Every structure is written in C-alpha cells, then in structure tokens.
Amino acid sequence: MPDPTTPEDHLNDQPVDAAQVSPRMEDTPNSDIGDGLSNTAREGVAAFRENLGTAGVRLSEQDDFAELAGRLKAHRSQVAVRPPGPGVPEAVGWMFGVLVVHIIGMVVAVFGLLILQIAEITWQGGKPAGTDFQAMVVNLPETFALELMAIEMLVFLVSAVVATRLRLGPRTSHLLGIRSLEMSHVLLIAAVSIPISLMCGGFHQFTLSVWNEFFAHLPGMSVFDHLNVNESIKPLGRTAPLGLLFLVVAVAPAIGEEVIFRGIIGRGLVARHGILAGVIMTSVLFAAVHIHPAHVVALLPLAFFIHLVYLVTRSILAPMLLHLLNNSLAVVLLKATATVPALEGASEPEMPGYVLLISAGIVGLVGWTLWKSRVEYRTDDGERWNPGYPTVEMPPKSTGCALTMTGCSVGLRRGAIGLAGAYSLVFVVSLVLVLTGHISA
Predict the structure, then answer these.
(1) Which of its termini does the chain have fewer beta carbons within 10 Å around, N or C?
(2) At a CB cut-off of 8 Å and minimum separation 6, what does 58 contact?
(3) pLDDT at 168 (0 to 100)
C-alpha cells in the first residue's frame, strides 16, 4: 500500500547513523546489504531503508548504504526546513516580559524591604504607626537604592535563566553555543570594549541633546526624565561598594539580557528572517527595554555589534563578555565621577568629533576582523554544516562536525588588536592621570 504522507511529513525522521551500523557493512558495498551482518546491524539497515522510503526516496535491495545515504541527504537538502522560533509576535512578547519581570522584581524588593523595616521596629518593642509607614515608603528609594536594584536584578537574572531553559529545553547549552572562545576573539573583544563604549557614549550625548532640544518639552515627555537608567544609578556612585555595584550593573545584565535577547529572541528572528533583518529587529527590541528614547537610539550601535560578536564566535560567552566590559567601564566611570570632583559628567565626556570618528573607525576595523575570522562547523568532507537556517547552535555530535576558523591573516588580527589596544591604553592612562590630579579633566 503506498505511503499517503508527503516528504515534509517525515522531515524530522532521523536516519540511522552510519557509526551505529556494523563496520562489516563497508566490506560488502555491492552485494545485498543485509548479507553477513549481525542482527543489530541488520535491524539498523532495515530502519534506514524504511526511513528512506517514508521520505519519498525510491530504493531497491541492491542499493548500497553509501548511495542511499547520499540520496537521502540530497532529498533533505531540497525540502524546506522550518526554522526555530520565536517569530516576531513572540519576540515582542519576550521584550514586554522582560519589562514585566523588572517591575515584579521592584515590587518584590519594595515589599521585602518594608517588611524587614517593620520587623526591625517590632523587634525593638515599637509599633509602627501610619505616618511611620508612609515615611518608610517615601524614603525607601533614597535609603535603600542599592538594595532595591540588587533585588530587582536578582529576580530578573533568575527569571531569565529559568525562562531560557524552559524555552529551549534540554539542549539549551548547545542551542545557545555555550563553549570556550578562541583567544584571538577574546583579545579582539577586550580591545574594542573601550572604543565602542566611547563611541556610544558620544552618540548618547548627541541623541540626548536632540531629545532635550526638540522633544523633552512636549506634553507628557517629562515622564522619561525618571526612566533614564544612567541618571538613576548616579547616586550609587558615592554610597555603593564597587564590588556590589559591579555585580548589579555589569554581571547580572550581561548574563540575563544576553540569554534572552541574543540567545532566545535573536536565535528565532535571525533563523526566520535572515541575519540582517534578524539582527536589526533583535537590536531594536533590546534597546527598547531601556525606555528613554535618547538611550534607546544610542544603544543601537552597541546592540548591532554585540550581535555581530555572537554570530562570528558562535558562543554566547562572547556577547556576555562584551556586555560585561562595556557596563564595567560605566561602573568605573561612575565611581570616578562620584569621588573626583574634576570628573563631573565624565561618564559621558564631551568628546570632540575626531575622537568619535577614530573610535568608530577602530570599531569598524575590529568588526571586519571578527567577521573575517568567524568560526564555522564543518563536516569530515569539508562542507559547512547548515541545518537549513542561519544559526549559531552547535551541531549534534552524530554529525562529526569540527569547529574551524575561516581564513583571516595573522597580520590583520594583530593589527586590529594592537591598534584597538593602544587606543584603549591611551584612554586608561589619561583616566589614571586625571584621577591622580596630574592633568585636569
């Protein structure tokens, strides 16, 4: 009786791996493929033939294993593969989910700290009155600013990790590409972190000035004044310990935001809409969660570059590293601004145009070098592994693919690392001289 199904119905059927079949099969390529095999191998061959039949590939008892495997591979390459999600609607839902989780985290922090204060008053034998409770609520953002932010970010980080695991399933580490980085990529990312931070900082100054000039005075726009993350964390520069500030501002966002935006949202949008459109949409959604319009626009170049780093390295650790270094520089400048009066406003210094152009040029050079030295998975016969859609995921072990780096001259890598590193060193030395009072800001 003919099979009523279509080839697409059997898209997820998996043929028996050649490694699972007895090596004796290779000794009889032109004979009946079932002759001289063990029962296990014979069952494997039968399953392989059945898989071919259901996929719509004609076969006969005289066809050898290698030929059948090649025909199945050719057939599968001609059938459209449905890329993974999320699509655009779900991706937008994830973005709003991030905002909701941050709100929930803040509510948890507020109620938790209020309960602790009430418990402390009660423990001391007092009884909080209504006016005391109102005072606690009013003074909470100023008195416990760091604690509020720490609890909020902890709720977000835990939620992001759990949600990622639930969405991607047991192969989360393979789908995200959790693997070690090439040393040259680590050096390139480290070297470009300061130039791209300076470039985006100067761009933020420009977008903020445009906002203040043309939009800030419009009705209802004043609400954004209270939603500027850069402004809200400035008071923490004087009071918060450097280590805890580093964990809250740098580590937690680098992990939580990257697994959500690049790992989940970016994976689906790039797979379904291609690299260019997928990166643009992912970057816009990533920037949008930072609320303030000037900050949103200023973050787009950084978001594009972070996603580029993810695609070329095929490791989620790469965007996490760049995100971490970028935010860490913000923490250092925040503390420096709070402790050295001469550095007032140095978190976003007034930079001349040529500095921004040089920074952008170095970022472009490093980006090109990263792309030229991108890594790929290739099969034993040298073919690039391709599941049918753009992705950074790791192939199944059964494919036998190996990670290889595309051709990039050593001179280009060294030149990009050296130039970006020297530029960063000049910035660091200048900052140290300002902090020690040897030069003025």
Answers:
(1) N
(2) none
(3) 94
Q: With CA atoms as reference, report the closest residue to 205 among 335, 299, 294.
A: 294
Residue the block writes with tokens 């906002």 = 211
What is the radius of gyration, based on Cα positions, of the chain?
A: 28
Any idea what the Cα angle at residue 46 is, between residues 44 and 51, rounded to 5°? 95
User: Given CA atoms 280, 282, 285, 290 in this order, what sign does their dihedral have?
Assistant: negative
Contact 416, 410 (CB under 8 A): no
**Cα–Cα distance between 77 and 331 in angstroms, integer?**
49
Residue 5 burial (CB count, 10 A): 11
Contact call for residues 325 and 189 (beta carbons, < 8 A): yes
What is the DSSP-derived secondary structure letter of residue 12? T
Lowest mean pLDDT of 28-42, 64-78, 175-189, 200-214, name the range: 28-42
Residues facing residue 152 across a β-bridge: none
Render pLDDT for 299-329 as a digit per residue (tens, 0 to 9). Answer: 999 999 999 999 999 999 999 999 999 999 9
The set of long-range contacts for 114-119, using a CB threshold of 8 Å and a minimum separation of 24, is: 114/140
Peptide bond into 86 cis (omega under 30): yes
The amino acid that residue 133 corresponds to is: F
- For 83-136, write each residue's pLDDT tens digit: 888 999 999 999 999 999 999 999 999 888 888 877 777 776 666 655 566 666
Could you say which DSSP state residue 376 is in?
A: E
Q: How far from 46 is each of 54, 56, 68, 223, 224, CA to CA, in Å?
A: 12, 16, 12, 68, 66
The SS3 of residue 92 is helix
Specify the 3-state DSSP secondary structure of 315.
coil
Q: What is the pTM of this model?
A: 0.78
User: In which band, very low, low, confident or very high, does the pLDDT at 33 lie, cut at 50, 70 and 90?
Assistant: very low
